[in-house]
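From the pipeline queue, job 12 of 40. The input is one protein chain; the requested action is below.

Action: predict structure.
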Amino acid sequence: MQTRPVAGEQGPPPNMLGSALRAARETRKWGVRELARRIGVNPSMLSSWEFGQRPPKMLDVAAILGALGVIGDEKQRILYLACAAELDRFASYLMALDS
């Protein structure tokens, strides 16, 4: 199973990161408010990340994974999704500069 995109291929679907974060939270049986309180963000911000309305920054993803105690392969998979989202944002920024 290939986990990293090859040059020229598109990355993972936009909301895959949000879905993975929500699944990790639900596995821990925490509500949005509880996790938001523990990582120091507004619950509506956390919700917007989970629903793909706004991508979280890499440091926010790391805080979420740490608070939830996510380790191993699942941690690596979610960090990869976060990295792909950061690269997509950066590519969009560069394309806007080029226009």
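Job complete. Residues 1-8 have pLDDT under 50 and may be disordered.
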